[in-house]
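Hi support team,

I'm opening this ticket because the web form for multi-chain structure prediction keeps timing out on my end. I have pasted the exact lines I submitted so you can reproduce it. The total is 531 residues across two entries, so I didn't expect it to be a heavy job. Is there a limit I'm missing, or should I split the entries? Thanks in advance, R.K.
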Amino acid sequence: MKLRWLANYGPAFVLVVALLALWELASRADLSLAQFLPTPSSIVRALALNWDAIYTNTIPTLLETVIGMFVATALGLLLAVLIDFSGWSRRAIYPLLVISQTIPIVALAPLLLIWGGFGLGPKVVVVTLYCFFPIAVATADGLASAEPDLIKLLKSMKASHWQILWLVRLPGAMPAFFSGLRIAATYSVTGAIVAEFVGAYQGLGIYMETSTNSHAIPVVFATIVITAVLSLALFALVNVIEHLALPWYYTSRLPLHEALASGKTHWH
Amino acid sequence: MQQSKLLLQGVSKSFRQGRQALAILEAIDLEVAQGEFVSLIGPSGCGKSTLFNIIAGLEQPDSGSVLIDGDVDSRRAGKAGYMFQQPLLLPWRTVEENVMLGLDIRRVARRQAREQAQELLKRFGLAEFAQHYPVTLSGGMRQRVALLRTVLFNPNFLLLDEPFGSLDALTRLSCQMWLLDLWQAVHASVLFITHDVREAILLSDRVYVLSARPARVLRVVEVPLERPRRAEQLSNARAVELEQELVSLLVKEHTRYETSLAR
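Hello R.K., no limit was hit. The queue was backed up. Here is the completed structure from your submission:
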């Protein structure tokens, strides 16, 4: 198990370490470069020195991200069910969703600030706008790919439209839903940062902005590192939730793999 | 006289294919008595599955009538337990939860449904698999689970569409004997589609032989074997004679159809 883990993540780890070492050496060798590009070691130092400020600013960003993800999940699921409801609802809603993604969020964020103030609300809206789309699209595709014979079976059992949705289509769409949620998780922190950038009382976005303005470049980089760590943590959290929520999806694969490996494809 | 479980009178059905109407079923008359096991055999693609869809209320005939327990109501869904060729188990439900599916749809209380499923699984030798997911089961096991699900949904009237068609010979035989055991325990009326003449003889009280498309009833025969059935009875002189008769009838029908297509 540990070996497999190493085989999966080992190469990426080695590459990251090598790039960091190269970066450190390059900026130490050429001091004019170090003015613009801080060394990895100075970033770590900045992180340690400004830890209190960074920590205080991480909490609101995380809160906005998580609330935004919850709203986006609810909205995405609702839209997916509406899209799947009938042919005309699909044709009506789908284009609107795509159009919603063509809005430049950078232009929208200042407007939201004017309408909603410096507080939590506008940030949650931006995170939701970033995140609901992959969830809605993936889940709608999952709902549409339900096995026709299963639906026929349920109809022969006199199941209602809602029972078919609840018993067959939604559970079957869950793996697709989680794929969408994973993509949303990687977007979500960036969404919160963008929203804070245009104005906030606190948060990693506004902290990044003030650090940039005061030319504290290592601090900006330290904040970027925290942003990346937050995104990765959310991504991992979605994976953990998926494994807990869909035991069938994962247990199903393991015995099959083992069976194929040992040459036994079925047993009695 | 006792009411028959199923009575089909002159059931016809055709599908539109482009501008042409393609006749699938032609004036089918068929009866299944209460507690009777009836098989349908016929060339593949002759419309047997369409006939099942009509009986199960998924489709309506163009003409003719379908009576279940003497009732002509066209909203027949739910009046028969319909089992398809594929097991169609829900991968996210355990074996036990799959067996409960019909009761969930009928909104039976969860605990009561679970108890009934457990009892059935125990009675028919699948208790140890109750908490497994379907994907870990063999093909034969999946078909048994699907059969129990069908029985728990409706133990009175079963429509079984080639349930053992994809199984290997040995698994198939054990599933057949298991089905006979099940059928006798729940006193179900069964309509069973198969391609396999021996299977039809081993299981049924009566066999309907259908023609190639459009399907008509070519012949109805009684199976002259005692119950309870054992696999050895297939080598009885009368069973062998019946098998040869039915096979030659099907071969003749198949050749007739092929030559009619060639023309």
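A quick check on our side: The interface with chain B takes residues 147, 149-150, 152-159, 163, 167-168, 171-172, 174, 246-249, 251-252, 255-256, 266-268 of chain A (CB under 8 Å). Let us know if the file doesn't open in your viewer.
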